[in-house]
Structures are given as C-alpha cells and as structure tokens.
Amino acid sequence: MATFKAIVIEKAESGTKASLADFDEANLMEGDVTFRPEYSTINYKDGLAITGKMPVVRRFPMIAGIDAAGTVEASSHPAWKAGDKVILNGWGCGETHLGAYGQKARVKGDWLVALPGGMTARDAMAVGTAGYTAMLAVMALEKHGLTPASGPIAVTGAAGGVGSVAIAILAKLGFTVHAVTGRPQEADYLKGLGAAEIVDRKELAGPVKPLAKERWAGGIDAVGSTMLANLLSMTRYGGAVAACGMAGGLDLPGSVAPFILRGVCLYGIDSVMCPLDRRKEAWKRLEKDLDRQKLAAMTREIGLTEVPEAAASIVAGQVRGRIVVKIG
After folding, report:
1. Are 161 and 43 contacting, i.e. CB atoms less than 8 angstroms apart?
2. What would the pLDDT profile of 103-142 be if each residue is shown by its tens digit?
3. Alpha helices in the chain (DSSP H)
C-alpha cells in the first residue's frame, strides 16, 4: 500500500507524542473527496494538539492539522471533481478526523469551500482558521450594527494570528483599531497592520469591575478569561464583543452588569462547525477585504519537519502573525 509523510500524534507513556512519520493511505478515514494538501498553517489549537497541552485529540493515531488548501485527486461528491482547488477548515479535522499535516487527506465534500479565484493555496493558508475566524468576528460586529462611526474597536491578543488579521481587516474597512498586547516590542508591526493605538494588556488584566469606564464601541477577543471580562466591562452602551479564543483561560470572571445595564452583546464565534453559507461568505469577504500586502507582512513559511517546534512556540505565545506550512 502507498504511504505518505504526515505529522502523526500517538499515545505515549506520558501523554502524547507528535512526529513526522509515514502514514498508510489505506488507513485514511471515510470521505467522498480525496485531495492533496499543498499548504497548511499553524493555529493555536494545532499547537495545543501537537504539544498535548490540552486534550484536543480524541482518537489515535491522529494526523494533526485543522486546515489545508490543495487540489482534489478523486471525488464522488457532486460538487467536486479532480483538479478542483479547495479549502478545508475545521469540522473536527486534527481532533476526531484525520487532519491536514499530510500529503494526502480524505474528507466529506460538504466540508470543503472552493479556493477563491483571487487567492493561491498559500494565500488561503496564510489566512487559515485564525484569519477566517477573525473575518467571522468582524461579520458579527457588522451584523450588530457597528460601523467606523460607532467608535474604536479593541482587538486582544493583537500580535497573534486572529488579532493580526482582525486588525488588518478592520483598518481596511475604516475602523479605528486599538491593539491590546503584552508585547510592546510589536508596536511598529501592529501599527503597520493598521492599529491606531497600542494598549498594554495590563490595563485589562487586573480585577474585573462590574462596570468600568466606557472605552470601546466593540471588541474582538482571542484571549478569554479576565481579559474578556474586562473588555466587556469597558464596552460602550449598546456595543458588542466577539469572543473566539481561550489562550488566557476558559473561565469568564465577570458580571451580568455590562449586559443588563449597558445593553452590551457578547457574540460567540465558532469556526469549526460554522454553516457552509457563512463560510463561503467569510472567504468571499477575505478575498476582498484583507490587504494582501499586509497578509504577506504577517506571514512566514515553514516545512512539515518544523511543525512540532512551531507548535510549541505558538502555545508559549512566541509567534507573531501567521505561519504557513508547505506540505510538499
């Protein structure tokens, strides 16, 4: 049987172990589309899965990787044929279904989105789930009715993948963006993406007041926990926050005061099981509303062999922007 190279996570004596290994094509899971990933990326969840810091992986052995962009090799799904360029994000890949850090993947055709005509596979993975999630968050704030005239938007975890793309999108749409970060050395980078102001994360790290001084019309939060609670307490009357991450923790140590006294709304952003129509809209918007030069400025490329090291770095909060993985 044919084998291919993949980053495989296996059970170990103490937790799990991830390494580049040969994987038997016969052991791919069921699906009506087989495609060849050309590029993938590293998201925070990938980092958690590969390092074993959280129990992301639910079956073993598991090919890691929640994202891929590549070319269809074989399909019995009516929407896809050999040669089609496709994007995969989420749907349990790298968790319950064999993922994308490999030279071959088999998935359900209903999980795929066509690669936008104005994007390459590499572009799409420079965006990845982090950028696609950022776009979903921006769409939620727009649906709430926020516009550039509403006031500044705070973006937490600003130098990370979600934050970097969110800043670039919001700035292009005309919003005033305040980048919240614990890495002051990244100020020039964040301003280059479009941030108008740099906010030290310490300002949102202290004890949470039921209601603090109103600062922002809305926010995009990729951190969770105390930072999200403080952000909510500082959101202006009628504002909204889109929450999409938990790098700071799963808890929310706040109060109901922002919701019932200021009418603040909290939108939960899920990228994994997001309905197909919303996915298509998000990728269409990304093609149009994300500055490609800014995307390039926030992206670096690695190979499969470098994935475990990069995974450890992203969990440690040492990664700036986006990492593209060339499968090759």
Report:
1. yes
2. 999 999 999 999 999 999 999 999 999 999 999 999 999 9
3. 44-51, 121-144, 161-172, 187-193, 225-233, 257-261, 276-289, 292-297, 307-315
Instruction: Using alpha carbons, list the distances in angstroms from residue 77 to 31, 46, 83.
Output: 9, 28, 13
Question: Which residues 6+ apart lie within 8 Å of 149 measured at CB?
Answer: none
For range 59-76, the mean pLDDT? 96
Does the predicted TM-score (pTM) go above 0.90? yes
The pLDDT assigned to 13 comes to: 84
Rounded CA separation 182/198 (Å): 10
Domain 3-115+298-326 has CATH 3.50.7.10: no
How high is the pLDDT of residue 51?
Answer: 94
Strands in 51-162 per DSSP E: 62-63, 67-75, 85-89, 105-107, 112-114, 153-155
Question: What pairs with residue 17 in β-bridges?
Answer: 10
- Sequence-distant (≥ 6) Cβ neighbours of residue 83 within 8 angstroms: 71, 72
Question: Tell me, what amino acid is at 294?
Answer: K
Per-domain residue ranges for the chain?
Answer: 3-115+298-326, 129-268
Contact indicator for 68, 39 with CB cutoff of 8 Å: yes
Alpha-carbon gap, residue 37 to 14, rounded angstroms: 31
Q: How far does CA 94 lie from the centroid of its chain? A: 14
| 291 has pLDDT over 80 | yes
For the domain covering 129-268, report its CATH number: 3.40.50.720
**In contact, 160 and 323? CB cutoff 8 Å:** no
What pLDDT band is residue 14 in, cutting at 50, 70 and 90? confident
**1: confidence class by pLDDT, cuts 50, 70, 90:** low
